[in-house]
Each structure stands twice: as C-alpha cells, then as structure tokens.
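Human: Not sure, check this?
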Amino acid sequence: MKKIKYLLTITALVITINVQGQEFYTNLTYDMSVPLGNTSDFVSKTSFRGASFEIGRFLSDDVALDLRFSWHVFYEEMPTDTYTVGTESITGKQFRYINSFPITVGAKYFFGGGLNFMPYIGAGLGTYKQNVRTDMGIYTLEEKKWHFGFYPELGFLYDISYGLGLNVFARYDYTLKAGDADSQSYLSFGVGFHFNN
C-alpha cells in the first residue's frame, strides 16, 4: 500500500507543476497480451482481455510524464490429467487465471513526426498486483502478491480532430520475483483513444 501512495504522490506533484504551455492528456486503450516466460509456462494462450487508462501531462513539446492503471487477464483451460503439487496428486480439469494490475509512473519522448503523427518511446516502473489462480473441481489455489515491475514501450499518436486522437502501442511488462511468487512478463499491444486539452 505504501508503494501506491508514493507513486500517486509523485505523480500528483509532477502533474501539478505549473509550466507554461503544458497540456494534460488521457489515454484509454483496449489491450491484447502475449504471455512470456513464467507467465507463458502457467498460461500459454494470448489474452484478449485487457485495458489501460493513463493520465499525463506534457512537460514540453516532446516529453511527457504519466500515471497508468491497467488490467490484463490471462486464462487457459487445461485438459483432464493428473496434477501434482508437492506430495499431493489430483486428477481432473484445471482452469488457470492470471489477473495483472499494473500501477506505474512513466515518461514518454515524442519524435518530430508530421502534424498529425507523433511516434514515441517510453518507459516506466511501479507496482503490479498479480493474482495467480488455479481452479480444479471444488478446489481453488490462489496466490495474490504485489510485485515491483517496469516496462519499455513503443507507440504513436495520430490526431483525428482537435482534442481527439488515436493511440497505438507495444509494451513489455516485466515484474520481479516477490517472495516465493515467480516473476511475470508479457507483451501487450494496445489501441485506443487519446484525449488532450
């Protein structure tokens, strides 16, 4: 909880700094995610359940800081088999889920494109709530942990009309191991709306 308070405080301070010519923006995107590493070992299927919300502020024409909230859901139904955990074995069908909730602070650098086209690179870090769950018959095994994580990002903005644009990106989210909980990683592709004042 302290991590979230620190991230929100830092972001609020950055956003409230009064600098001439700054503008706020909001991004709302639909995300698809491809599991990698330990995430792929647990759930191998591509996720089509995800969304991101960003609020940010341009510090100059080509630099922006933002706060991101995302939700990515991975799901896979495993075939009927005998599964062993420790010394216990059980036969049945498994349903596996990972719910990932990134809360991050990031920066973006925008390259000079056309008037309506602005490519960018970005990076950020923050805390990720990872809920990893296995359902099998009447039994549920669930692990909920907060992880520290980071991401690099590539994307572009395309202005459609005044105050409204299109945001397209590819982002690699990686979380470090937290106690006995494995690290997680996935590649997200998002498309959605960019609103600015």
